[in-house]
## 1
Amino acid sequence: MGDTAEFWLRFALICYSAGLIYSFITVIRQRRKLFRPALAAFTVGAAVQLVSIVDAGLTLGRLPVSTVYQMASVVGFCTTLAFLTVYWRYKFESLAVFVFPTVFLLTFVSILGTPVEPWGGQAWSRWWLGIHVVLFLLGYAALSLTSVAGVMYLIQEKELKSKRPSSLYHRLPPLGVLDEMALRTLGVGFVLVTLGLIVASWWAVVDQGPNWIVDPTIALAFVSWLIYLALVFGRITIGWRGRKAAYLSIVGFCFAALTWIVNSGVHSFMNR
Amino acid sequence: MSLLLVGLSHKTAPVEVRERFAVPEDQSGNVARKLLDAPTIEEALVVSTCNRVEYLVRAGGNFRATEEIYEHLIRAQDLAPRDVEPFFYRYSDRDAIRHVFRVASSLDSMVVGEPQILGQVKSALAAAKDAGACGPELEQILTQAFRVARRVRNETGIGQMAVSISYVGVELAKKIFGSLEGRTILIIGAGKMSELAARHLRSAGAARTVVTNRTHARAVELADRFEGRAEPFDRLLQLLTEVDIVISSTGAQKFILDRKTAEGVIAARKNRPIFLVDIAVPRDLDPEINTIDNMFLYDIDDLQQIADSNLDQRRKEAQSAESIVEEEIDKLLRRLKSREAGPAIVSLQDELERVRQAELQRFRGKLDALNPEQKDAVEGLTRSLMKKVAHPSIVMLKHSSHEPDGGRIVEFVKRAFRLPQ
């Protein structure tokens, strides 16, 4: 990719980060604010990304979809385009919670295709890795609470529906409290894990070069992130609650646990 | 100390008997005071509720106290003794304490675990104290009874579970929503039962009430009583998407809400949970609605069934409460006995010292000839003699508080040494 294309892409990413922040605020504070400025930044981001793709295409003399990174950029742009069309036509505002982080991450991945200067030293690398680990640990701790609340919700809901409550019914907290707890921990966990993922990708590309993306366990991490993204979106926009949300949070956590087991210790590229 | 308890309750007497012997709340102090006129009764307390009348007295000496209480009852009621006896139970000492503890802990109540009785016993104690009928001994027993009641409440689940239909409803609502603050209730059909249920929910924190009824005028009437608003019946589906709790009791012969419509309602609510109580017979709401996620439907039988199982649960908890009661009786008796033994030990020692001094005085003429060293020896000798004599009795008194008939030991030692009673 040409230097100018790379520059425009980074510029687009900065615009998209406004959208990411909007999503974070929505998820954690449970209310929608700052949508207009985020949407404006997002639209500018889309325009700049288009410039970047056209620039790269002209340099290469063909459509820039030959590497994973170029592909990510194009897919990100298409998603943005689709969202803006849908929004323009139907004013489907809440879709933004889902689309903004997705596009940000796709664009973020696409800029990681260019090799970067290695770290100034080992210490920097360790710091960066430490932040990644702490963010993930805190994030998954919050998400584990989400799934614990989910399990408790399912038991309590069963008790209530059975109409023959056992002693568990008296001991477990009310459904409303469990649902609230699941929602809050999900919001916090999602934000932390997203940040952790960004930090991790950055670390990987700087430390390991562009090959990091082919690691299957990394793909797994992205998939479990996508599950949580879907859960966040479902809860906030469609109003998934109760049983469905509880089951999904448990599935999400199982997947995250699987990722963790596969990844436990080090990623495969680090052994090379 | 001899304690005596004479009483009747829902277990021994039907309501028409209970109401004859009931003592008005503001009179319980006076009645207790009047009992002190009887020769053997030294302290008295009267607890009277709609389910029981209890006379607790401390009697000195012989056991005429029962008769004296009966005499009081007969005189007050203009009855013959045989009219009274069959309905009353009598407990003395340990059994009397047990009964007081069980009553205060609501183990003897009609609805086991109901909380009102403790307050009633507390005000009976206050009334008896104000009237000067209750002294330190009864007060100590009652104070202990309150402690037992607190332990039973904290350590067993006896008071946790709702046992009336209305409270079961409130409890379920709390288990679904967490807090009822700011929740809206919809009453469909303006019946008496739904009004009662709504009233309980309101006092548990629910904020607004909406009433809808086929006859709009009645809806308006009921809404006024709740400072709520009345809505026309044809807006029912719209209302269902707005409220949190529904109480339905129309006279409709068919379901007013079936499963399919309910699915539409929950979708329109964006899955916000809704609690539906159907107290109509025949039922208003399709029971299948309960299978829908986030919709919680209970009919009158469901509520009754939960109330019954809660009551069973309370009875089970009551069993573990009984052992707390026994444990506390032991503690109290030990404390009461050691209170009797303590003064007895002191007066025994005083008495022996008095005897010793008197004897030394008697032999003073002969002792005066001794030199100071020898005088000291005599002093030491007499002291140690007295100590040796007193020792077994003091040990016995000290241990008496751990023995079942400890009171008698104290009595015996007092008599043997001619100590003041």
## 2
Amino acid sequence: MSQSASISSAALSSAYGSVAVVFHWAMALMIVAIFGLGLFMSNVPLSPEKLRYYAWHKWAGASVFLLAALRLLWSLTHPVAMSAPVPAWKQAMAKWTHRMFYVLMLAIPVSGWLMSSAKGVPTVYLGLWRLPDLVRRDPELGTLLQGLHGFLNYTMASMLVIHVAAALKHHLWDKDEVLVRMLPFLRTPQWRQS
Amino acid sequence: MRRIALVLAAVLICVRGEAQAVEYRQVVAEKSSIAFAYRQMNVPMEGAFKRFAGQINFDPAKLVEASARFDIDLTSIDTGASDSDEEVQRKPWFNTRVFPQAQFVSSSIKAVRPNVFDVSGRLTIKGKASDVHTLVSMKQAGAKAVFEGALAIRRADFAIGEGMWADFGTVANEVQIKFRILATAEPVAGAKKQ
């Protein structure tokens, strides 16, 4: 199996294209913001502001889903090689971490959407397009899906902490190109070149 | 045999006679519903009132004497979310401590088409009265009849949602009240129970 795999990966560039980089950072910002808004809004007392925050949160969530789907298509059609030869177990970890992130980026908005439907509040994207309710109004199911939405979010938040820590470790400890290739503005510091 | 046929014919004539001179007087609350629909951040929302009492006096052949009155227990509101149920009891919304009930009293009922009536009356919510009228359709089935219709009101006319809720940007002014009333007939005076 390694024969064809290594040939094809050898032919691949290890550089992320600008589309992939923009996808990464745009979604990173959105996801952090929407996570913060989600935490914040649930503690706001019932008010017009709260209703607005929920609507924005849901619109942003639907946008994350759309972007994640497009990004998945892009990454499948534009594969990128590892920046340096790494042991198989590390490759497998990296691969599964990526997959897990994609699953969560798609599953979290869906769980929020279903939760909202079950709680009797349909989702109208940007206040313009009504998404169908895939589940009926059912308060018990709503509570269950709320739990799932929270669990998936905390799972992703934990993964994000590890993801950031790992990127920093690569950059500061291993002094390799892992972070730089996703952050092209971050040139190798002068003190490291000398 | 002839006797039996005669008796049957007499019974049939009696039953037919009764069905025409039917007067609906009893509202079956368990099989009736008073619901409402509105928009919140342009999202269609639905709710209902679980408790209400109705008194009707309705003979389609004697509309001049027909009347209807409904008293709705506003504390029985079901918005789909417990925090909203509590919120709407408060002063800016229904202020149910002072105004626990909403009331509709008909003033005139006119036939528009067969089985469709224009019902005018006075709707009082939160101490504010407004003249309203609505088209009501009737489906008769023997001693039972279902009356259905909808009534569009503006919440601001009744000061429902004051202060920070007065802005229609989050909760729209228009509210649809949808009702489905099952009523049963009492035999008209003089008719015998078979």
